[in-house]
Amino acid sequence: MSLANIDDAHDEELPTAARAGGMAFPSSHSLVLEIVDGPDAGRKVSLAGFENARALIGQSPACDIRLTDQQVSRRHAALDLSGARPRITDLGSTNGTTIEDVPVVDAYLRPGAVVRLGATSFRVMPATSRDVSAPPSSTASHFGKVIGGSAAMRRLYPLCERIATSGVPAVIEGETGTGKEVLAEALHAASPRAAGPFVVFDCTAVPANLVESELFGHERGAFTGAAGARKGMLEQAAGGTLFIDEIGDLDIALQPKLLRAVERREMRRLGGDRTIRVDVRILAATRRDLDREVQSGRFRDDLFHRLAVTRIELPPLRAREGDVLLLARHFCRDLGGDPDTFPSELLDRWEDYSWPGNIRELRNAVARWLALGEVASSTEARAARAEPGRGDTAGDFLDSFLTLGLPLPQARRQMVDAFDRLYVDRVLAKHDRHVGRAAAAAGIGRRYFQMILARGPSD
To answer: Is the pLDDT score of 413 beyond 60?
Structure first.
């Protein structure tokens, strides 16, 4: 049964118990997962720390809700609490997921609905005063260089503090532009390794034939042009932290070598026969769903388990109520401007905008406004009208430039720039924010595509 079948169907098409507890969960209550059958029967897991997030369920140590049931897959299902109702998604498990004995792949839950995974049954219910509550949210508006005072961000800060001091590998997940690298740097700065180097390796920024050399280093003569030995990123990060960005794009042929470095703290340079000890903490980030990448065979299961000892998911900017203005003022000061000079109508538009490029897009918007002033404000208005579902027409788009009263060459240039940015946003969304595939689909070089993307949000 698909998500659409359950969500859009009439109540009579839903399992009986899914209707039994009422149509929706009380918004004023936190939730608890009650295991009612199976090896872990009687156990209760508070879900208060997973609002606006996803909890993985399975046998794997990387799962948020770990079960001992041998009939449950290592990563069996995901429980998404980001909407008004909990949503259960089967992650390609061996024995499947059912609600009231009805097999499901993706479905919303109702209070009291019994979900079965293997030999384990559970239900999600409003928590009572006797249930164990999650640690309280932080009252801070930042964690290191990570800025955010929304409830979605404040819930993460206590977890960030624990991850920072633990020293174990961690995976940071989130959409493009949500600030994964900034969070990784903040975790390093708050860790016992803060005095050591913080080295960044972006799997998408290095040509495929050079990734091994860049990451592990090479010996003299290892390949044509290797005139001397060179330390790779792992050695350069010794005593500190190596942040591997977009780990999901790492060639699967290199993943065993990285696994050895993480697991045994040793490696060999390309073309070398000497084992080198490396003392480095690995933080990894990805925009991809690594659980699905593992299931599809594109990412090694053993490397995933070693890296995902702890996981943290950064929410998109559209889910961070109040943070747009906070971040806009921060970026304005950081760029040498006065945030009190922002026009109120511009801030209103920014609050209403969905920010598909997240924090990176907002920073570019602030920088453009500081550089162009009122011209930037007018283009921001066009960006808001051009969003899907806003009903903008080609005539409105052209008219918005004509009303500026600019000379023809300048108006033409601004209109072409606006079209370019709108185009790259659309093609990026179509290709899961993957720049390489989007550039190929657009028929232009990756570098030129990134130059257009760097101009900021679509106008």
So the answer is: yes
What is the C-alpha separation between 142 and 148, in angstroms, rounded?
A: 5
d(CA 204, CA 248): 10
Residue-level pLDDT at 2: 30
Bridge partners (DSSP) of residue 267 are 276
Tell how strand 310-313 and strand 281-286 pair up: unpaired
What contacts 24+ positions apart, CB below 8 Å, involve 287-294? 287/173, 287/174, 287/175, 287/176, 287/246, 287/248, 287/432, 287/433, 288/246, 288/248, 288/249, 288/432, 290/171, 290/173, 290/247, 290/248, 291/56, 291/75, 291/78, 291/91, 292/91, 292/92, 293/248, 294/75
DSSP string, 390-440: S---HHHHHHHHHTTT--HHHHHHHHHHHHHHHHHHHHHHHTTT-HHHHHH
pTM for the model stands at 0.63
Is the distance from CB of 428 to CB of 438 less than 8 angstroms?
yes
Residue 435: CB atoms within 10 A of its CB come to 20
What ranges in 289-407 are assigned the alpha helix state H?
Answer: 290-295, 301-307, 323-334, 344-352, 358-372, 374-385, 394-402
- Positive or negative, the CA dihedral 433, 437, 441, 445 is positive
Q: For residue 182, which amino acid is it? A: V
* The dihedral sign for the CA sequence 260, 262, 249, 72: positive
